[in-house]
Amino acid sequence: RVKMSAEEILVNAVELGKNFCLYFDELECDALCKEKTLLRVLRNVKSQLLVVRPDLNVAAFEDVTDQEMQSGKGMHFSIHCYKTTTPLAGMPVAFSVQVENKSYYMCCERESGEMIVRFKEGEVPKEIPGESNIIFFKKTFTSCCSTAFKFEYSMEQGMFLAFEEEGYLRKLILKKLSEDEVDETMKMSL
Predict the structure, then answer these.
(1) What is residue 96's DSSP assignment?
(2) What would the CATH number be for the domain defined by 34-189?
(3) In what helix (H) or strand (E) does residue 108 lie, and over which residues does it extend?
(4) GO CC terms for this protein (predicted)?
(5) Which of 50, 76, 120, 130 has the fewest other C-beta atoms within 10 Å?
């Protein structure tokens, strides 16, 4: 079974050419356009908040006090939701965060053969013409848990945001997951 999108794309036929080929006009290109932005904190399965510390080049899930949460340094994320002209698995989103009056966006880069999650200074674009290393697909964590989500990296199917214990840190990483597997380290609530 295939789920179809309720979104309609209007296409106007222009002419019937040689060999009875049909030509179309006004086709939209594959592009992502920012639709809305949500301000949220990201929590893992242990109710810890994701905190970005650009000065230390790290993003990790931490236990946060109410006072620290009110100051909000590096933990209140803008989740930029995009609409697209192509049906995709999940809503395309990008993440940014304010730290010390500077804006940082989340992206993924390959380093020493491994995919690394980074936060770089700058703004999230309003439109993305094609593939981008800042886009993740927001999906429900499981069919019976609609309040928790997992985020799949758009450029590598089966790679999801997750946390990994590294000493005392629960560091934000990209982790490979097979389709039928459930991994609690990928479970996030907004």
Answers:
(1) E
(2) 2.80.10.50
(3) strand 102-111
(4) cytoplasm; extracellular space
(5) 130
Residue 20 burial (10 A CB sphere; 0-12, 13-18, 19+)? exposed
* DSSP secondary structure, 142-175, as one string: ETTEEEEEEEEETTSTTEEEEEEEETTEEEEEEE
pLDDT digit string, tens, across residues 117-127: 999 999 999 88
pTM: 0.80
**Position 69 pLDDT exceeds 90:** no
Boundaries of every domain in the chain: 34-189
Using CB atoms within 10 Å of the CB of residue 151, give its burial: 0 to 12 exposed, 13 to 18 middle, 19+ buried.
buried
Among positive and negative, which fits the CA dihedral 147, 152, 157, 162?
negative
What digits encode the pLDDT tens for the residues 24-46?
A: 444 444 568 888 999 999 999 99
Decide if pLDDT at 5 tops 70. Answer: no
